[in-house]
């Protein structure tokens, strides 16, 4: 037994993670259902570090130092359960199984409970950064017991991305907390992408800018507070010309967006937790709507908004408004994500360091952004911060963005350009800052038809009104 860790499942992700461990000096046992992949890894990359190739499950487990650390990188779902069932009987109390796949956090909670009952640690670890991140430094979000993190933490921190010398890995919380936080990362990623896409659409359709010019606008924004991986790659995509036609690349791509499902999980879970992640939800629905070809064809000639072209000076002014709108909406999207993490922590009994979540997302993952330093600072200064806008610097920025943010959403509405994520973010902001909401009327309606009762502003307790029925006078209980 000589390997510090074993990786089973040597697909794109598993192979690169195994190489990352080996390159960082950890002897790694490698195993795959189809041994061809193990042999290919040894032949191509065996020289990169100390690998122990195992073809059978028994050989693989025998190669691991105790407590054994066995990382599974296979397809999420039934394959993960099958692999757990294959290896768990070969392990001993205190050993650790790490699932680095994109598991649903509820599956991770179920697996953790079952394996805990068998004396094993089960660590659901969110791994972000794709193929490249797995090899050169992912963001790692492990859940599971503190005891397991004491052993695994230094290893994850060593292989993770680093920002300002700090690792993009931290213990998130018990059982499924790591996979939950990874899921919310992907939800925020959907919101970020949709907001950027709406900004592009407005700059093009209202501002009259060409894609290559918008690339320059994004490059300028990338040097400021919006600086992030997604803004950076957006500029690259917009500047790209299709080789076959000479047209802007963005114009030759079919406008129906795909999704693999983790953004959808965020929205589904948010409904269960009553977390209003409306910007993330709109981003998810926007992808779905873009693919509704038949409806889009049937509705394509319905009337829209006005179309008055802007002068170049007006367009430049509009672009700076859109920057404010994008930033303010992004703050709202992240605030929604953090609120959802707080909601889940309360629901599942997790203790989550909200500043650490911001810290580990600064590198290795898709939403990496300079702005996360600010979120980290806000939660470091006040770990109990109720929401980002309760912090004075964020509040000041949002105050500054008021006019341009509202102008941007209003321009979109007047011109008939869809801006569902911008609009949802602004509506969310206006909902939470309102002193009175029409929810009072909803309570009245609910009491009328269903005797659901209501709370009063002036007296405690549940109240019900005997609503006037034909032939019966109104009385208040
Ligand atoms: P790949 O599709 O490249 O590889 C899948 C691996 O799963 C192969 O090693 C395959 O073995 C193994 N496998 C399957 Br499928 N069913 C199995 C079973 N019943 N028993 C044993 N092994 C089985 O996947 P990947 O892209 O490396 O992704 C691995 C995990 O990482 C997934 O959960 C994915 O969601 C997650 N993830 C992916 C990314 C990404 O950017 N790709 C990022 C973050 C997380 P075989 O060789 O014998 O078929």
Description:
There is one protein chain. With 477 residues, this protein is of the alpha/beta class. The chain folds into 3 domains: 5-175, 3-Layer(aba) Sandwich (Rossmann fold), CATH 3.40.50.720; 182-433, N-(1-d-carboxylethyl)-l-norvaline Dehydrogenase, domain 2, CATH 1.10.1040.10; 439-476, Single alpha-helices involved in coiled-coils or other helix-helix interfaces. The chain has 20 helices and 13 strands. It has helices at residues 12-23, 35-45, 57-62, 78-87, 105-116, 130-136, 146-159, 177-205, 211-222, 229-239, 249-252, 262-273, 278-290, 293-299, 312-348, 354-360, 372-381, 392-415, 420-433, 439-450; strands spanning 5-8, 28-31, 51-53, 69-72, 96-99, 121-128, 139-142, 162-163, 166-167, 454-455, 462-463, 465-466, 475-476. The protein has a 7-stranded mixed beta sheet with strand order 3-2-1-4-5-6-7, with helices on both faces. It has a two-stranded antiparallel ribbon with strand order 8-9. Strand 8 and strand 9 (166-167) form a beta hairpin. Helix 8 packs antiparallel against helix 15, helix 13 runs antiparallel to helix 19 and helix 16 packs antiparallel against helix 17. The radius of gyration is 26 Å and the shape is globular. It starts with a strand and ends with a strand. The model has no long low-confidence stretch (mean pLDDT 96). Bound molecules: nicotinamide 8-bromo-adenine dinucleotide phosphate (NBP). It holds the Pfam family 6PGD. It is an enzyme of class 1 (oxidoreductase). This is 6-phosphogluconate dehydrogenase, decarboxylating.
């Amino acid at each position: 037994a000589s390997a510090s860790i074993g990786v089973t499942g040597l697909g794109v992700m598993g192979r690169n993670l195994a190489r990352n461990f080996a390159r960082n000096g950890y002897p790694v046992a490698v195993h795959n259902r189809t041994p061809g992949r193990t042999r290919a890894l040894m032949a191509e990359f065996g020289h990169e570090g100390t690998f122990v190739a195992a073809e059978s499950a028994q050989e693989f487990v025998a190669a691991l130092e105790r407590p054994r650390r066995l990382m599974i990188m296979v397809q999420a779902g039934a394959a993960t359960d099958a692999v757990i069932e294959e290896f768990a009987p070969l392990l001993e109390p205190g050993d650790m199984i790490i699932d680095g796949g994109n598991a649903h956090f509820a599956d991770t909670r179920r697996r953790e409970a079952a394996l805990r009952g068998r004396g094993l640690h089960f660590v659901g670890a969110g791994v972000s950064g794709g193929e490249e991140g797995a090899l050169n430094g992912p963001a790692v979000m492990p859940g599971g017991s503190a005891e397991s993190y004491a052993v695994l933490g230094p290893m994850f921190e060593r292989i993770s991305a680093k920002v300002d010398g700090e690792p993009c890995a931290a213990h998130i919380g018990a059982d499924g907390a790591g996979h939950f936080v990874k899921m919310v990362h992907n939800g925020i990623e959907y919101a970020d992408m949709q907001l950027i896409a709406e900004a592009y659409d407005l700059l093009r359709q209202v501002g009259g800018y060409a894609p290559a010019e918008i690339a320059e606008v994004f490059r300028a924004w990338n040097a400021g507070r919006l600086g992030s991986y997604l803004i950076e790659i957006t500029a690259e995509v917009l500047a790209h010309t299709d080789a076959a036609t000479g047209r802007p690349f963005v114009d030759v791509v079919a406008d129906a967006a795909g999704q693999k499902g983790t953004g959808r999980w965020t929205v589904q879970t948010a409904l269960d937790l009553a977390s209003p992640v409306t910007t993330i939800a709109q981003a998810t629905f926007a992808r779905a709507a873009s693919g509704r070809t038949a409806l889009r064809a049937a509705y394509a000639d319905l009337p829209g908004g006005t179309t008055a072209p802007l002068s170049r000076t007006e367009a430049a002014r509009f672009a700076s408004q859109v920057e404010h709108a994008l930033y303010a909406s992004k703050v709202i999207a992240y605030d929604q994500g953090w609120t959802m993490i707080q909601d889940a922590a309360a629901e599942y009994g997790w203790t989550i360091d909200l500043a650490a979540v911001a810290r580990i997302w600064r590198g290795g993952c898709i939403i990496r952004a300079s702005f996360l330093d600010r979120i980290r600072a806000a939660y470091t200064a006040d770990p109990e911060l109720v929401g980002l806008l309760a912090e004075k610097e964020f509040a000041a920025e949002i105050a500054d963005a008021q006019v341009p943010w509202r102008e941007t959403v209003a321009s979109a509405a007047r011109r008939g350009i869809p801006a569902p994520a911008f609009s949802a973010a602004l509506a969310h902001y206006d909902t939470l800052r309102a002193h009175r909401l029409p929810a009072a009327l909803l309570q009245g309606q609910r009491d009328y038809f269903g005797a659901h009762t209501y709370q009063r502003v002036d007296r405690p307790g549940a109240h019900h009104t005997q609503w006037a029925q034909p032939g019966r006078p109104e009385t208040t209980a």
